[in-house]
């Protein structure tokens, strides 16, 4: 029974990765390249090589990602590494297959919209299948470990580092359209992974809370609050982990917790607004307004 469940899960993951890889290939070959657009991350770097030297993205993406995986494989668990290798291979093959289609719209904005929707959906499905597109994710983790840059900021810097030079190759207009493409990608990825909720909060109760906290801090670079709790029935003291994260990180934290302690008690809640270190800060005007509102409530 257990083996059947594992097999079904693997088949499901591979199906998601295949579909995601197909959408990824369609985005690159149907929308991005025919319209002279760029991309973020290592896909964008591969497209720069294509525009400059005519090197096929199917080969360069595969070679670059394998090189990055060889350097940073330690940052991926075995399951993710396995599915990432599968995704990388399938993407490279499909980039060779999906070459006869091209969509060059009369309305300029349709190209980045199409590219962003297909790429975002592709990456989202690959991530749902426990895979990644390698490249940027691993580089971001390396920057976090050795340069102290948090992962989201590192990913943004990588995209900027790729897109800005692309403007000198594809032109300022297409570079601007590429930014629209990247924005749409991020929204589609978020929608596929976690819907439209802006932030999520986790309460995690586990006897292995130290290991879980260390894994989350090392892999995501997120701050964690440890709260003291006490079971009503057992009267036992328990430590509770409290974390605020972005939507994209929900699956990763769930997998970290489940891998370390499958019996951990975990709740996930929607958070409408988050301010403070690591997220955003209220302006002085807004702070004053909030204080005034609070004082009025106290006076009432």
Write a concise keyword list for the protein shown above.
300 residues, alpha+beta, 2 domains, four-stranded antiparallel sheet, 11 helices, 4 strands, cell membrane, transmembrane helix
Mean pLDDT metric: 83
User: End-to-end distance, in Å?
Assistant: 62 Å
CA-atom Rg in angstroms: 22 Å
Coarse morphology = elongated
Structural class: alpha+beta
Could you spell the SSE succession in H and E letters?
HHHHHHHHEHEEHEH
List low-confidence stretches.
Answer: 289-300
Beta content: 5-15%
> What share of residues is helical?
55-70%
What can you tell me about this protein's structure?
This protein has 300 residues and is of the alpha+beta class. It has 2 domains: 2-194, no CATH class; 199-271, Alpha-Beta Plaits. 64% of the residues lie in helices and 10% in strands. It contains 11 helices and 4 strands. It has helices spanning 2-32, 41-53, 57-72, 78-97, 110-128, 136-147, 151-170, 172-194, 209-220, 250-260, 284-299, and strands at residues 199-205, 225-230, 237-246, 265-271. Strands 2-3-1-4 form a 4-stranded antiparallel sheet, with no helix packed on it. α3 runs antiparallel to α4 and α5 (110-128) runs parallel beside α8. 35% of the residues are buried. The model is unreliable at 289-300 (pLDDT under 50). This is Membrane protein. Keywords: Cell membrane, Membrane, Transmembrane, Transmembrane helix. InterPro entries: DUF2179 (IPR019264), N-reg_PII/ATP_PRibTrfase_C (IPR015867), UPF0750_membrane (IPR051461), YitT (IPR003740). One of its GO terms (cellular component) is plasma membrane.
């Amino acid at each position: 029974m257990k083996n059947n469940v594992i097999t079904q899960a693997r088949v499901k993951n591979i199906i998601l990765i295949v579909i995601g890889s197909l959408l990824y290939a369609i985005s690159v070959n149907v929308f991005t390249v025919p319209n002279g657009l760029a991309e973020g991350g290592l896909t964008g770097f591969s497209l720069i090589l294509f525009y400059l030297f005519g090197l096929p993205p199917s080969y360069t993406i595969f070679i670059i990602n394998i090189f990055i995986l060889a350097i940073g494989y330690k940052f991926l668990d075995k399951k993710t590494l396995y599915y990432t290798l599968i995704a990388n291979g399938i993407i490279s093959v499909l980039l060779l297959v999906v070459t006869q289609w091209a969509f060059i719209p009369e309305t300029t904005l349709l190209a980045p919209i199409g590219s962003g929707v297909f790429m975002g959906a592709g990456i989202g499905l690959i991530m749902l299948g426990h895979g990644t597109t390698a490249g940027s994710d691993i580089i971001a983790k390396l920057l976090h470990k050795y340069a102290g840059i948090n992962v989201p900021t590192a990913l943004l810097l990588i995209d900027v580092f790729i897109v800005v030079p692309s403007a000198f190759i594809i032109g300022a207009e297409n570079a601007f359209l590429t930014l629209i493409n990247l924005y749409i990608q991020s929204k589609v990825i978020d929608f596929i992974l976690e819907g439209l909720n802006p932030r999520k909060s986790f309460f995690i109760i586990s006897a292995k809370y130290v290991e879980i906290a260390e894994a989350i801090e090392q892999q995501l670079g997120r701050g964690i609050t440890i709260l003291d709790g006490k079971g009503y029935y057992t009267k036992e003291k328990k430590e509770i982990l409290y974390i605020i994260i972005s939507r994209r990180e929900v699956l990763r934290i769930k997998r970290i917790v489940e891998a370390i302690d499958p019996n951990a008690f975990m709740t996930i809640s929607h958070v409408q607004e988050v301010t403070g270190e690591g997220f955003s800060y209220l302006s002085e005007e807004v702070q004053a307004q909030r204080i005034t509102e609070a004082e009025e409530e106290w006076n009432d």
